[in-house]
Amino acid sequence: MVVSSVQDMRKDSGVPAAGGRAAGRASSGSGVGSWVDVLSELEAGALDEPSALDLITTLERLKRAASAAQARLGVRVEQLARRRQRAEGLPADRLGAGVATQVALARRESPHRGSRHLGLGRALVFELPRTLEAMCRGDVSEWQATLVARETAGLDPDTRRAVDERIADRLPGWGDAQTAREVRRLSYAADPGAAAAGRAKAASERRVTLRPAPDSMCLLTALIPAVQGVATYAALVRESDRARAGGDDRGKGQVMADTLVTRVTGQSAAPDVPVEVELVMPADTLLGDGHTPAHLVGYGPLPAAHARGLLRDSRAEAWVRRLFVRPEGGQLVAMDSRRRRFSGQLRHLVVLRDQFCRMPWCDAPIRHADHPVPRRSHGPTRSDNAQGLCEACNYTKEAPGWRSEVAATEPRHLVAVTTPTGHRYTSAAPDPPGQGPVVPPPVWRLEQPGVWSILARAG
Fold this sequence. Notes:
By secondary structure, this protein is an alpha+beta fold. The protein is built from 17 helices and 12 strands.
């Protein structure tokens, strides 16, 4: 049972129980029953205030110890996988392929996070043993350990262990910001040459990313050298101060954001951005006062009124294209192709249907449209044998031992992926853009409203 396993792990890792009646009962029980009793009291509201706080502390320490166990297990999985792949004759440069994704699937997280977890596990097990010990005791969180690993990443193994030893006694008392600051300072002092090399490598990885934010906003983030970042921010502040001194009634942050958009795009005003924007929305949202959210491709749902406003206020030309959906399930209609690759309108349909990477828990933007059943196995190039994947996940599924198949096409497109260890995970296509949850309709229902795709492009 999960509860008894967690309790055993707490004992093995030396995590003491916090004081208090409820926490005491939880720690002294010999099986599942004691924890079930505590959780039952919690659901019933029977815990008093001190006991509730004590239980929060105990559970937090258990979470930290569990994170340490996951880190060690991830490294063990990698060692076993590399041994198996070597026996199968995989080239040395391919050993370990797909392991990070297996770890991610086991943790119900994205492959990107799985790679980070696996990297952290390697660092803790082989080069940061004192930090790992603190995690096992429940004294250090997974994020705090991540900060230690991040700030010592450029050091050679021996120097890294020396820094780990120096901070061992103080680390449990530090907050996150202090951890990053102190470990960075010690790392710079321990190996100035590594610090210089780290700066050069980091500068080569500069990039700009986009993430959705609440209320139809997004986070446009630039990872750039510190001096350039400070200079950019200072220029935006100066422009904001100048505009407001001249009577502009926008707030400081508003002026800075608008200035960033206009300077990057070269337009005279932020709404004139010359980029392609694609909205998918039901007919009642487009033509009437419907409230079904629209879907902004590459972003996600937008409120119906906001989508109508975007079209009404846009200074760009617009085209309207209707995409019909299946009456029996609301899925976008399929299109066949005799081609080997997904391209043109067929690829467009797959991207609209899947919206984000179909590897379970990934959610990265789609970069590749590919066959779950590959062409070499006579898989057809049709929308029912298609899935949208990010680049990394598409390469992962081609690693030895991985297998994909279409598990169902109605009422929802399902793709099952099986890992080299035999674990099977299934991903479902999301609700069609601009539709509510797909529910099998009554037998008398003959048709489903169409979905409208509006393509707005600068002229």
